[in-house]
Write a structure and sequence with these properties.
The complex is a heterodimer.
Chain A: E1 2-8, H1 21-29, E2 32-36, E3 42-46, H2 49-56, H3 87-93, H4 97-104, H5 110-114, H6 117-134, E4 138-139, H7 140-145, H8 147-157, H9 164-174, H10 182-205, H11 211-220, H12 228-259, H13 261-269, H14 274-283, E5 292-296, E6 300-302, E7 305-307, E8 311-315, H15 317-320, H16 356-373, E9 378-379, E10 401-403
Parallel strand pairs in A: 1-2, 3-8
Antiparallel strand pairs in A: 2-3, 4-10, 5-8, 6-7, 9-10
Chain B: E1 2-5, H1 15-19, E2 24-26, E3 33-35, H2 45-54, E4 60-63
Antiparallel strand pairs in B: 1-4, 2-3
Classes of the chains: A alpha+beta, B alpha+beta.
């Protein structure tokens, strides 16, 4: 790693929809760049596509940073969401990972997720009806982008829609890097896990046609293959990952397409571009945040550069997805880009995002509905005035005001 | 063309079934990809190549 110049991380982003210039600079300089986390600890940053993909696909390393000497990410005493000790999660992430994935994968198959498309369409239309009834301008994040994935994930898990506000708050606190205190984090975690535990018990007692009932039965069959603690971590993980990331992506996708309105008009003219536009918006996510951590537990090489055991690396997926060597003219939004779907927005390898099919279905339904029902959709404000949400791991825009 | 799937690598994304549904399916019990045709007809070759390219686990091996 180049030691002479340690950059503060995550990088400043003067324009929310433009990648920080440091990504390209880091890629051009060396495979691993030294960065300083909000906690003050130093980690390595990986920004190249091939190096990122190789690391993410390496089963030896995972995102748990609860090891001695791992970089802390957050300003809370426990170091942040990746550093918190959690026995069940550590087990799920390391030697038991394969077993764990094979137990929960059947609940997330493409067939099962695609079956949700009509329900997602219905929820999308309901939320849009309400937004249109209130009239323009609307703040898309609050009116549409947050509630939709939360409704979907609640329906999928069989959680009550009334609980949405509570776990939206808990996720926000758990994902803090600088926003909340340790006491607030501990309280949120206790409450969230108690909530998940109650939900699991309820599904165990009264199984229904939902994903959590299915997982509960997996845990009860064949001598408890999925432990109660694993089940709770799974529920918390699905609720956190399932709403925040997709909400943010709906907002970013809309902003990218409306910033260069010709793109939006092209999709209106040819709705068959919807899937390609969705992939390209994922690839061009301008708000990379921290990326995905990897604790390097044995000496390795990254892009030919030695990385010693004990190093914490952050793989910035968004930076890797703008690597010119993989995606020519990488900063250009091209809904017809032939290899767009090889992006790393959902990671790669054994820990590839288990919710990616659901996220893709949601994003496709949203964009398809927007171009059909809102041909006059526009940004209210100058794109340069858009602000990034700071202080949390999953990053998006603070708000997005639209007119139609 | 002959295809093999490395079950050890497969991460059950199901993307291959999206790209080439005539050639790939997902097992109900663990989500792992299975072949419906080990030597698919010529009209599926492009779709199979695309499935291999987007496989997030690089688990699809093609011999042409």
């Amino acid at each position: 790693m180049t030691g002479e110049n340690v950059l503060d991380y995550p990088f400043d982003q003067p324009k929310a929809l433009e990648a920080p210039r440091e990504w390209a600079e880091a890629r051009a300089t060396c495979p691993v760049t030294h960065v300083r986390m909000p906690s003050g600890d130093v980690a390595g940053l990986v920004t190249g596509y091939d190096e990122a993909r190789a690391l993410l696909s390496d089963p030896r390393f995972n995102r748990r940073l609860d090891h001695e000497g791992a970089a802390r990410t957050s300003t809370t005493e426990d170091g942040g969401m990746f550093n918190r000790e959690n026995k069940a999660l550590s087990q799920m992430m390391s030697e038991g990972h394969r077993r764990y994935r094979r137990l929960i994968s059947p609940a997330f198959t493409v067939k099962k997720m695609e079956a949700w498309r009509p329900r997602i369409q219905q929820m999308t239309d309901e939320l849009l009806d309400a937004m249109l009834a209130k009239g323009a301008p609307a703040e898309l994040r609050a009116e549409f982008a947050l509630p939709l994935p939360v409704r979907v994930i609640c329906a999928l898990l069989g959680a009550s829609a009334e609980d949405q506000g509570r776990f939206a708050h808990w996720s926000d606190v758990l994902m803090t890097t600088t926003k909340y205190t340790q006491a607030e984090v501990d309280e949120a975690r206790r409450e969230f896990e108690a909530y998940a535990s109650d939900l699991v018990e309820e599904k165990r007692a009264n199984p229904r046609e939902d994903l959590l009932s299915e997982l509960t039965q997996i845990s009860d069959s064949e001598d408890g293959r999925l432990s109660h603690a694993e089940l709770i971590s799974t529920v918390v993980g699905i609720l956190v990952a399932g709403h925040e990331t997709t909400s943010n992506q709906i907002v970013k996708m809309t902003a990218l397409l409306l910033e260069d309105r010709q793109l939006y008009e092209a999709v209106i003219a040819d709705p068959s571009l919807v899937p390609g536009a969705v992939e390209e918006a994922l690839r061009l996510d301008p708000v990379g945040g921290l990326g995905i951590p990897r604790f390097i537990s044995e000496d390795i090489e990254v892009g030919g550069e030695p990385v010693p055991a004990g190093t914490t690396l952050f793989v910035n997926l968004s930076a890797a997805d703008r690597d010119e060597r993989k995606f020519p003219d990488a900063d250009r939004f091209d809904p017809c880009r032939p290899n767009a779907q090889q992006h790393l927005a959902f990671s790669a390898g054994p820990r590839f995002c288990i919710g990616q099919t659901l996220a893709r279905v949601e994003l496709q339904v949203v964009l398809d509905t927007f171009v059909r029902r809102l041909p006059e959709l526009r940004l209210r404000d100058d794109p340069d005035a858009l602000r990034i949400r700071t202080g949390v791991v999953a990053t998006g825009l603070e708000e997005l005001w639209v007119t139609w | 063309m002959k295809i093999t799937i490395d079950e050890e690598l497969c991460c059950a994304s199901g993307l291959c079934t999206v790209k080439a549904g005539e050639v790939f399916d997902q097992r109900d019990e663990d989500g792992i990809a299975v072949l419906l045709a080990e030597a698919p007809a010529a009209e599926h070759h492009d779709a199979v190549r695309e499935a291999a390219a987007v496989c997030p686990a690089a688990a699809i091996h093609i011999m042409e």
